[in-house]
Design brief:
This protein is 80% helix and 0% strand. The protein contains 17 helices and no strands.
Length: 418
């Protein structure tokens, strides 16, 4: 065991602050996804209106996208650990609001309706807009440059394990113990996150380089221009945005489970878990064999494979085949996630990392939410199966154009940049 753990894949784990960061990230993701599941069930039970569920995403994405660039500016000039710590406190506030709101004897629902739920969702959106660039930037300070790809792989692995654990735990606690205990567990996890953060030694502020912009708006523009002037970063971010925008069928899974596969809510839960399970398996593989050779080609092939999976899934009427397609989509998606995360870390200077990560978070945030809207809109006017096939074909088209127009990305090998 000692020889196994002494390999390159585990070198990054030797750093105490990185281990604490992984523990924080796991608990943070579990708590956030638990809260998301509980809020969805609670809101639908109150309103019995599917439109209210759609409003959750809109209420969350607007503040996230609106604050991201400003957050990136401050992430680059303030202590990143402190930003994460104080922002996590806002999540404690939000979970407290939901817990108190859900106590039946207080009758808050009769007085305020569903407003407190949407206030918390809005707070969560603000927090996401701040934490996404802050997490990325802090990670780059916790480990040496040559271990950034390994760090990104471990971080992705932890996130996907939490992505399976969080919704399942939220449903179990809610189902067996009730809504107030469920929100209390979420609060406890956020509190543990804060405790783990306290033990991470702050790397301090990043030294500004000579000649850097000083005003806030100038620094924000500097970050945006940095991305758009770096073809590797821009093409990697754009590839992710359009692939998610066109290729995601997750928003339509309830319809497939109900009308096509006829497997009910239990089958739906299994289908939702399949991509994350595939991503976890691939993360384990990439931990031992990081994508540092032919990185750009692996990125393009993985997004192409994701699009193919979506097309096959659209035509499948067999539950096992559909589940396998979603499993493979998670495998392919995780390769692209890790390569893109490594590109961001390696191609961005420390003093610019917060702003670049903020731009990336806008790409990701807009593509996820707008992609769900695109899927629903296309399904409404094209039909369910044609809409998913169209999305998969468009994903293949985007990959092909990117490979043709961006030879630098196509030929990229991260090991040559470390």
């Amino acid at each position: 065991m000692k020889n196994i753990l002494s390999g390159e894949a585990f070198d990054v784990i030797r750093y105490r602050d990185f281990r604490l960061f992984l523990a924080y990230r796991f608990l943070m993701t579990v708590a956030t996804l638990m809260q998301s599941v509980i809020v969805g069930w609670q809101l639908y039970n109150i309103t019995r209106d599917v439109l209210s569920l759609g409003m959750i995403g809109l209420t969350e994405v607007i503040p996230q996208v609106s604050i991201a660039l400003f957050a990136g500016h401050f992430v680059d000039i303030w202590d990143r650990k402190k930003i994460i710590f104080y922002t996590t406190f806002l999540l404690l506030v939000g979970s407290t609001i939901l817990t108190v709101y859900s106590i039946p004897s207080l009758n808050i629902q009769q007085l305020w309706g569903i407003a407190p739920i949407f206030v918390t969702i809005f707070i969560t959106g603000l927090v996401r807009g701040i934490l996404m660039p802050a997490h990325t930037a802090l990670l780059g300070q916790l480990v040496p440059r040559e271990l950034l790809t390994a760090a990104a792989t471990w971080s992705s692995t932890i996130w996907h394990i939490a992505a399976v654990t969080g919704p399942a735990l939220g449903g179990l606690v809610y189902g067996f113990f009730g809504i107030v205990p469920a929100y209390t567990v979420v609060f406890a996890f956020y509190l543990l996150c804060s405790i783990f953060l306290l033990f991470i030694k702050s790397p301090g502020k990043v030294a500004l380089i000579a000649g850097a912009a000083e005003g806030m708006m100038d620094r924000i523009k500097e970050g945006v221009f940095y991305v758009f002037n770096n073809k590797v970063l821009l093409n990697a971010f754009a590839l992710d945005m359009f692939a998610v925008f066109f290729g995601g069928a997750v928003a339509l899974l309830p319809v497939f489970a109900s009308d096509i596969l006829k497997v009910g809510p239990e089958g739906l839960g299994f289908l939702r878990a399949c991509p994350a399970v595939g991503a976890i398996l691939m993360s384990v593989i990439l931990t031992f064999k990081p994508p540092v050779s032919s990185s750009g080609a692996q990125l393009l092939y993985s997004v192409f494979g994701f699009g193919v999976c979506m097309i096959i899934f659209a035509f499948s009427t067999n539950f096992l085949l559909s589940a396998f397609c979603l499993f493979l989509s998670g495998v392919f998606d995780n390769v692209s996630v890790i390569v893109r995360a490594s590109i961001l870390q390696i191609f961005t200077t420390d003093e610019m990392k917060g702003r670049v990560a903020a731009v990336n978070s806008i790409f990701i945030g807009s593509s996820n939410e707008l992609g769900a809207f695109e899927s629903g809109f296309a399904a409404r006017f094209m039909g369910l199966i044609p809409s998913v096939v169209f999305g998969g074909v468009m994903t293949l088209f985007v990959v092909s154009v990117t490979a043709w127009k961006s030879p630098t990305l196509r030929k990229l090998a991260l090991k040559e940049r470390i």
